[in-house]
């Protein structure tokens, strides 16, 4: 992951769209999900996301390829393994290929 002094491009979507699936929201609220990956950039570091009245600060935003994902990354997403995370993502996006070289934006956050 090349995040050192990375200049972030403009956001492609609003932070309100960062975590929208009920199961994912529940994982965030329980502290089981502390990161989410998106095709675009939805937040800036320091920005606040609100979910069901609770606030979460975005702490890091950087690009990563799908091939760089580890089980630790999957656990931050609320899954035990990369395979479990991959199955979930592919079930949410039918027909989407899982390409190891495909870059995604990682948004890490913590409760405030």
Task: Explain the overall architecture.
It is a single chain. By secondary structure, this protein is α+β, with helices and mostly antiparallel strands. It has a single domain (15-111), classed as Sulfate adenylyltransferase. 23% of the residues lie in helices and 26% in strands. The protein has helices at residues 22-30, 71-76, 82-92, and strands at 35-38, 48-51, 54-65, 103-111. It has a 4-stranded antiparallel sheet. A hairpin with a 2-residue loop joins strand 2 and strand 3 (54-65). The longest helix is centred in the C-terminal third of the chain and has 11 residues, at 82-92. The model is unreliable at 1-5 (pLDDT under 50).
């Amino acid at each position: 992951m090349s995040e050192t002094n990375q200049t972030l491009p403009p956001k492609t979507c609003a932070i309100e769209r960062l975590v929208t699936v009920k199961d994912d929201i529940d994982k965030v609220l329980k502290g089981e999900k502390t990161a989410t990956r998106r095709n675009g950039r939805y937040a800036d570091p320091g920005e606040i996301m609100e979910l069901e009245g609770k606030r979460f600060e975005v702490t890091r935003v950087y690009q990563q390829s799908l091939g760089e994902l580890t089980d630790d990354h999957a656990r931050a997403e609320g899954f035990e393994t990369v395979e479990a995370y991959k199955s979930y993502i592919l079930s949410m996006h039918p027909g989407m290929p899982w390409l190891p070289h495909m870059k995604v934006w990682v948004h890490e956050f913590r409760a405030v």
